[in-house]
Amino acid sequence: MYISSWPGLTPYEFLQGHSHGLPYPLNAANRTAFCVARSGIYHLFRALEFKKGEIVLVPDYHSGNEVSAIRAAGATIVYYPILRNLEPDLDALSRLAAKLNPRVIYVIHYLGWPQPMKEIAAMCRERGSILIEDCALSLLSEPDGKPLGATGDYSVFCLYKTLPVPNGGLLVQNRNILGELAGLKLQRCPQTTAIGRSAELALEALRSRADLIGKTLFGIKRSFGRLLRSADVRQVPIGNIGWNLGDVNVAMSSICDTVMQRLDYDRIRRKRRENFLLLQQKLHGRVTMLREDLDEGVCPLFFPILVRDKHAAAKALWQRGIGAVEFWNEERPVAERDSGPEAQYLRAHVLELPIHQDVGPAQVKYIADQVLSLDLQPVS
Ligand SMILES: Cc1ncc(COP(=O)(O)O)c(C=O)c1O
Question: String of b and e for 64-78 (b: at least 16 CB within 10 Å)?
């Protein structure tokens, strides 16, 4: 069996049609679509015209892409601690806000779960800080009927992590619209990037259904990719951790719009929730889960578990055909380490299991059986 990490692209995505209209943020009045979300973050911070010494409070559990983009735009970052439940240490955040009067408080909603926005928005109001919501991992999550990303002044979304699209990052301005962003001149996404990644997504979908054919075609695709690289054809990296100032003006490719017009977003959220709850039921009491709660409207990106040896567990699951994802292993030298102990714990032990909309009940059962067969050591 093969279960991809991300949802695949099938002809069905181009053929289906439904009449519900696009959900937030895809229908937001003020939105700009980039090839990747980090470009939107960069342009937002550039447009905010940071002066030397003006501070952004950023969570110490982060991918690195958002941090690179904020830094490249000239802002000064101070980190606030994230706890083991993925929520900020509100006391520490409040103390930092009182001491530093930050220009921006930057919030990351992890894997679909909401942060305590009421408290953080109140802090922002009290200090006159701008509130930015990073929903790169939380598209379609709407706890209590309010979409994540709709509270802050600005929000950013990564589309290709939740939807079967080859690229796409969205910057949304909910208020205090910045004129500079309207004047941005974006370049077309290179066709090779869009077509290459679309082919990969199609092969993922095929491999999930027919492992051997998909595997063979993947080999051909990989050779073709090597050929393009050796011919020095321009590619914009998608889904990587890295920063290249030369890519910040690349727009989302048009194929994304075509696919997004046709998707059934209620189904995507429902399937992800069903898969989460089914896997939770199968693993309950036998594996350490990072979050067991799933409030109404929350759209989980993955099913996060805590394992002692994350690399070994991920490798074993990949050998069994399960696309487990290891978020944010990046270890920095101690001297420049920006993560506190709790964030380091999350970096070391959280393993993400796929539960996206293409995963069916038999695959969820397979994931559960394989995870349980690994005899994972409990993590302290
Ligand atoms: C929390 C967070 N913010 C921003 C980004 C940037 O997204 P993109 O890869 O679309 O640039 C990522 C990507 O991993 C992320 O995890």
Answer: ebbbbbbbbbebbbe
